[in-house]
Amino acid sequence: MQSFRNATVVLALVLFGVSFPGASAFADGDHDGSQTTAEQAGSANDRETMESFVLHAKRHIDAAVAAETGSTAALYKQMREEGVWKDGSVYLIILRESGTVVNHGKYTKSLYGNSLAGIPVVKNLISEAGEEKPSCVEHNSKWVCAVRYTPAVSTAGAKNVLIGGFDHEEEADGIVSLVCPAYQPEVTAQDVSDSQYVSESHALETLESFVKESIKRFKARAAQDALVDRQKALDGVACWGRGPWKSGPIYLFIMSKPAEGAPTVVFNGNNSELTGSRFENVLDEDGVDVGEVILKAVETEAMGGIVRYKWDNPVIEEDDLSEVNMSPGRSPKISYVEALPGFGNATYIFGSGIYGTLEGDGGSSDGGDDGCAVAGTGAEPAGAVFSMFLAAFSLCLALWRRERSRK
User: Fold this and answer.
1) CA–CA gap between residue 145 and residue 125 (Å, rounded)
2) For the chain, what percentages of helix, strand and coil (3-state, to nearest 5) are there?
3) What are the pLDDT digits (tens) for 107-117?
4) 12 in helix, strand or coil?
5) pTM greater than 0.70
6) On the CB side of 208, how many CA atoms lie within 13 Å of its CA?
7) What SS3 state is found at 154?
8) Mean of pLDDT values over 182-209
């Protein structure tokens, strides 16, 4: 029976490893200072504990920013999930100094780009928050604290503000909604989506035209306002995550290209938490370095091209991955990227992509000789776990029978 017990332990470890495929070291890693959690801050409900919770989160953000490997995005994601950084009504909110939402423990998708500066308590916290000493106030019988920090993407010394303990409704009074100008590009995200049902060549041509439309819009706005400052030129870019710029899994992304090294995400039309992430050694499950292939594509004479890698498809939950320094998903993606130099010292990379496997790209097609078929990734993760379970269970059963036969 000893062998059977040992095999059972192995089975449990295998299943645990499959179910929890790697947590970020930034969740509760070793560091100096307190390791106060959201649960502890909520239970204590005093200034000292809430201040300790916010400073704990700031230390992890500072470490993630310093790592420059996409760890900021992984940490932002953890802040939106129940655990160290979120417990019921106690969670974290990250704002720009203007009050614009960067990451929200409760409403990132709905409030990204909106401003909380119209809420009096938030306005006061932003104005009084320091980089070393948080500002704190008792609000609705709960303590709320805020502290400043330097984000990965910053212009002219601009800071972000981290707030802990402030709970509000999604449509609370004082929230200023992002106002997007009425603008209709000649090629929309919906056009890209529809093009996939026509042909491979048409899909790629439409995708390229869509990206060029975003560059055209960016250049026109910058010229109109005579802007060369990065932050000002990108003001209101959150509008590109909605309306004609987004349709299902089709969206835009913008990166900043340094003179040397990996690109940094300035905007992502689907995952706002990626803002500020440095794409250095961010690999997909096939080992493709996503930042590297994007940089290679825009370093050609044409300053743009097609890149292929695996990424998170927004409409498929089963393809998600959550490991640090890894692509957030396993769905095949084909993107067109193009560089736009000449704005101050920055060169921007604009891009968008479609999900699936195109004929002639090493994959199969269900749409004829010149078609585009979505790769079958939906059931793979669950199937893989079940197969591993069966294999481990069979091993346990075989060992148990062998023990029985010896008696």
Assistant:
1) 7
2) 40, 20, 40
3) 987 888 889 99
4) helix
5) no
6) 12
7) coil
8) 93
